[in-house]
Task: inverse folding
């Protein structure tokens, strides 16, 4: 999992900006060998797969999620090769580890074709055994621990002529710090609050969530979520053209939609 943790750091910068210019450009990039991709094109491939609730004004938590599709893993590895000045062997070793951990696949470097866990050349997404997501969460109550209002106890004379402080009046008390509403999501048992949903209305829970155990979303969180898609002859995404990553128990429910046409 060390390779995956390093890949996480390679993607965090994408959460602050967008390099995706459209599906046409994405498709054009994929028609060329990955060895010819520029760093910007690697960013474009990764950002094209990413989904978020950035424009959902009702959500309490801002979420970005990037599925580790084969194209995304390739872009991550090529980008890392450029930044770390890897040779081709180092690139392939990184690719192999990510493919195994994230998808249950490997690459046949003699033919440059992906191979599933049963030894078949990759032709269809139903051959993908598992899927990893990189998830980043942010509490939308920006600077939640410092933006609470300050109430000065200025003298005030009530209707009876008695001098009191403003915080002792009924309308002063509603502004006291202890009554100021600050939403801090509970992240305990987070694995029970994340689901993958298909278009048939069926859902699966994560096989594993890789994160440091923080009980509350008091700062930005970035972690990995692994789902098992295939069980014997059954594939969770069979018959679906979209999948949905769902978060519950973090305020309003969050649902991110991913078109499966990009799962390549």
Result:
């Amino acid at each position: 999992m060390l390779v995956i943790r390093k890949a996480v750091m390679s993607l965090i910068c994408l959460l602050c900006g967008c390099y995706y210019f459209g599906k046409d450009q994405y498709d054009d990039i994929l028609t060329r060998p990955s060895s010819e991709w520029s760093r910007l094109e690697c960013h474009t491939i990764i950002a094209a797969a990413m989904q978020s609730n950035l424009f959902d004004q009702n959500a309490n938590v801002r979420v970005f999620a990037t599925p580790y599709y084969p194209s995304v893993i390739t872009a991550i590895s090529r980008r890392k090769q450029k930044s770390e000045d890897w040779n081709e062997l180092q690139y392939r070793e990184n690719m192999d580890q990510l493919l195994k951990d994230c998808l249950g696949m490997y690459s046949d470097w003699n033919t440059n074709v992906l191979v599933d866990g049963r030894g078949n050349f990759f032709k269809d997404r139903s051959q993908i055994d598992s899927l990893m997501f990189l998830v980043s969460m942010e509490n939308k109550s920006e600077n939640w621990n410092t933006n609470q209002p300050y109430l000065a106890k200025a003298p005030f004379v009530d209707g009876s002529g008695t001098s009191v402080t403003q915080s002792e009046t009924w309308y002063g008390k509603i502004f006291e710090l202890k009554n100021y509403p600050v939403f801090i999501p509970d992240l305990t048992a987070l694995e029970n609050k994340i689901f993958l949903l298909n278009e048939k209305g069926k859902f699966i829970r994560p096989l594993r969530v890789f994160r440091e155990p923080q009980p509350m979303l008091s700062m930005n969180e970035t972690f990995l979520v692994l789902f098992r898609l295939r069980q014997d002859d059954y594939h969770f995404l069979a018959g679906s053209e979209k999948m949905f990553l769902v978060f519950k128990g973090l305020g309003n429910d969050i649902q991110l939609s991913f078109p499966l046409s990009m799962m390549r």
Summary: The chain has two domains: 2-141+184-262, 146-181. The first helix runs from residue 2 to 12.
